[in-house]
Amino acid sequence: MSDPSAPAAPAPPRGMDAFLALALAACAAACVRALWFTPVDAMLGAAQKIFYVHVPAAILGLYVSCGLLAVASLMYLWIRDPRIDRLAEASAELGLVFMGMVLVTGPIWARTSWGTWWVWEARITSTLFLWLLVLGYMVLRGAVESGEQRARLSAVMGSLAALLVPFVHLTVKLFRGMHPQPVVLKPEKPSLPPEMLLTFLLALGAFSLLYVALLRVRLRWAAVRDARLALEGA
Known about the structure:
mainly alpha; single chain; globular; 234 residues
């Protein structure tokens, strides 16, 4: 029987987060600009417009999410702060979402450009492997009941993402394949025409806002969950 004098568990956030609504509106505006107010690529045709979702999702899913997952995991192994563990968990979930967008939009683009939905070339295969690694991280978190042990084991696995991200980035340089060379993330200046580059930067900014908004919401939910678990175990 619960103690009536015990503090009540915090309530989960309700309603639409204003920052999340703003981020969704920015993403919608970026997609409208890409579809109707950005020139069609002369070689790839209208299918190239997937680029404005595919590449921002790749940057946020691979570099930001997995990078944040690895850094937070290493920091947790150092200072054992549960807030950092929640940050790692939230980063992994968003990594699954944004890399999932990459793995969905990529085959759609490939079908129109290469005539096939999938090819087992280095960039695509390594991205899929990284997505499966992060999925395994989430499965591990769900399989271990002890909170401290779960956080510790997950941190060890999450830190491995730091080893694979540079390899994924370099695959188009190290291996010959059908995946095009980078046009934005490369040592030289971007090779996109100015109007296309502006649309890309706006899309990247909009999806970055969405990433931050989702991360904020996910961290708030995780804090409420952990507080309730702590009260139940008290």
